[in-house]
């Protein structure tokens, strides 16, 4: 390798994704010296820690490994820039068990190769030249397959294109092996590995992506100062999400010292130091809604940050970067003076290619709730008047025009405020089967139809028929007292089989009645569609919370 430095900065990356180092070594260091160093630095509490140097497997970008075999090589266009840094990458794993030789060994080595490739691309501004090498512990068939995977995967990269990565593959690679078992494993794994480079686009579906600095990220500018993106992931999740280091590179490149990240995920977090500490969490559950108080806190925080410097930018993300992100981005746009529908449409246009941004009805409902809480007497920022919690009693649930179902299991849950934290976990108020009432006098819906049928002589005759669907009342044995943010979930049975759910706030219930058509319910599955007739709807009947009335005080048939 031309231009090798007198010393090498070596980072040891373990198979679990954690790092040791970097540490500087003489360029003339032997393999034994490196291995002994790995063993001495390995955390003693690590699971499956290697006991001897024979337990180590190394993939390296460098030239100092002895008795190694070259799989392939990448070369950076910066190789002729003086002062480039040569970096070595070491991956550690256990040798395969006897019963796992063959496919397991090949799969393991390909995953190590992909990990190394990602590591090289991450640091492409510092790499002069890189060679992937393996040090023994693989049979000939595995080695040959690995070379062919390397040769075939690199030219097929479309995510991003090889030219945009600043890397290219060597053409000096041998042809495929003649071993049929190895060929079968090769093609299976080649297909698997190739998909890793397309999987991020598959996961992002119709969300707009942004190509910047050679990176292809699930990220969109909603306005010049508001970005929406998916979760910045590390380790294996970076295969299908935005890699953390790429997101950081782009933000440092475009908005250095002027960006702030808002993380909406409750299910996963990361160290704020990745973004220089400028991270604020507003966590709530996936496919659900936040409290109006949390929406207020985010809008005020974002407005304060953007107002403090005209260069400041805010990045908002959840896991996929669509539903929860869209709710909060749209809420902030409403906070700046847009109507709820206008804000939701702007987000849909800027974030997606099919103009379907926030698609969960409850999330859209809460953007409208937020708009009703705002007034603009003196411009922006507006006055925020979140309604006080309104206690209600859930008396009855009525479902119109259903078929092929006798009972429904219903869970009523309420957001529970925990002192000292923003996240409001759900607390179940009721879990019970709702009972069908047959004698309350609700008229069944009968749908009449006719069609033409041709007889054996070729004559058409009109056939008439009808399809009778039922409408049922479901009532609770005891009064259900509710207040604030609620979620009512409907199940086909008490274990699994969710049909749909709806989230709402009791302060916005008009005339003690809530009505939901099937398009206004969340996550309506195929089973729910199969039980719904053309006039299907769900009604929730409420009453005032009368403290003088007992638990069984609600007896009205309404």
CATH architecture of the largest domain: Roll
Measured distance between first and last alpha carbons: 85 Å
The percent range for helix content is 25-40%
CATH fold assignment of the largest domain: Ubiquitin-like (UB roll)
Query: How many strands, which pairing sense, and closed or not: the largest β-sheet?
Result: 9 strands, antiparallel
What is the assigned CATH homologous superfamily of the largest domain? Answer: Phosphatidylinositol 3-kinase Catalytic Subunit, Chain A, domain 1
Structure characterization notes:
The structure is a single chain. The chain is α+β, with helices and mostly antiparallel strands. The N and C termini lie far apart (85 Å). The strands form seven sheets. Strands 18, 19, 20, 21, 22, 23, 24, 25 and 26 form a nine-stranded antiparallel sheet that branches. It has a five-stranded mixed sheet with strand order 9-10-15-13-14, with helices on both faces. It has helices spanning 31-41, 103-122, 140-153, 162-165, 180-196, 199-204, 244-255, 292-308, 323-335, 340-351, 361-372, 526-531; strands at 7-14, 19-26, 59-60, 69-75, 87-92, 129-134, 210-212, 215-217, 219-223, 226-229, 232-233, 242-243, 259-265, 279-284, 313-317, 374-375, 383-384, 392-402, 408-415, 426-437, 445-454, 460-482, 485-491, 498-505, 513-517, 532-544.
Salient structural properties:
Immunoglobulin-like; Protein-Tyrosine Phosphatase, Chain A; 3 domains; single chain; disordered C terminus; 558 residues; 5-stranded mixed beta sheet; Ubiquitin-like (UB roll); alpha+beta; 9-stranded antiparallel beta sheet; 26% helix
């Amino acid at each position: 390798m031309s231009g090798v430095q007198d010393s090498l900065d070596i980072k040891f990356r373990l198979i679990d994704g954690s790092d040791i180092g970097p540490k500087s070594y003489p360029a003339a260091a032997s393999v034994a010296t490196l291995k002994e160093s790995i063993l001495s630095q390995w955390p003693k509490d690590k699971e499956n820690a290697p006991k001897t140097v024979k337990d180590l497997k190394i993939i390296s970008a460098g030239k100092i490994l002895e008795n190694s075999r070259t799989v392939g090589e990448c070369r950076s266009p910066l190789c002729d820039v003086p002062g480039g840094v040569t970096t070595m990458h070491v991956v550690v794993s256990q040798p395969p068990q006897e019963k796992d030789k063959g496919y397991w060994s090949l799969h393991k080595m390909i995953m190590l190769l992909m990990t190394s490739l990602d590591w090289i691309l991450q640091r492409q501004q510092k790499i002069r030249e890189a060679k992937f090498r393996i040090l023994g512990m693989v049979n000939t068939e595995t080695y040959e397959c690995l070379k062919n995977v390397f040769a075939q995967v690199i030219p097929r990269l479309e995510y991003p294109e090889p030219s945009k990565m600043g890397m290219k593959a060597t053409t000096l690679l041998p042809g495929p092996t003649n071993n049929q078992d190895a060929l079968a494993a090769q093609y299976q794994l080649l297909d698997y590995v190739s998909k890793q480079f397309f999987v991020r686009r598959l996961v992002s579906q119709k969300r707009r992506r942004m190509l910047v600095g050679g990176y292809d990220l699930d990220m969109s500018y909603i306005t010049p100062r508001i970005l929406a993106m998916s979760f910045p992931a590390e380790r294996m999740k970076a295969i299908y999400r935005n890699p953390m280091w790429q997101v950081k590179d782009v933000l440092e490149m475009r908005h250095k010292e002027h960006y702030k990240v808002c993380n909406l995920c409750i299910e996963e977090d990361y160290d704020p130091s990745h973004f220089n500490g400028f991270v604020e969490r507003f966590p709530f559950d996936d496919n659900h809604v936040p409290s109006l108080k949390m929406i207020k806190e985010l809008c005020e925080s974002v407005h304060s940050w953007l107002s403090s410097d005209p260069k400041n930018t805010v990045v908002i993300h959840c896991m996929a970067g669509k539903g929860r992100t869209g709710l909060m981005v749209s809420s902030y746009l409403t906070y700046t003076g847009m109507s709820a529908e206008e804000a939701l449409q702007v987000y849909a246009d800027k974030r997606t290619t099919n103009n379907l941004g926030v698609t969960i009805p409850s999330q859209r409902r809460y953007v409208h709730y937020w708009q009703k809480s705002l007034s603009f007497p003196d411009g922006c920022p507006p006055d925020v008047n979140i309604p006080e919690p309104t206690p209600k009693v859930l008396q009855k649930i009525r479902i119109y025009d259903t078929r092929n179902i006798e009972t429904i299991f219903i869970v009523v849950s309420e957001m529970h405020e925990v002192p000292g934290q923003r996240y409001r976990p759900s607390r179940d108020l009721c879990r019970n089967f709702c009972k069908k009432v047959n004698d309350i006098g609700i008229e069944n819906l009968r749908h009449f139809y006719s069609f033409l049928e041709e007889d054996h002589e070729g004559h058409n005759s009109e056939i008439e028929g009808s399809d009778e669907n039922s409408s049922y009342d479901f009532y609770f044995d005891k009064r259900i007292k509710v207040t604030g943010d609620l979620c009512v979930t409907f199940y086909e049975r008490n274990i699994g089989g969710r049909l749909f759910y709806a989230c709402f706030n009791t302060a916005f219930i008009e005339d003690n009645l809530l009505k939901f058509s099937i398009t206004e319910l969340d996550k309506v599955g195929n089973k729910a569609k199969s039980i719904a007739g053309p006039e299907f709807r769900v009604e929730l009947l409420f009453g005032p919370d009368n403290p003088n009335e007992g638990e069984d005080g609600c007896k009205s048939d309404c």
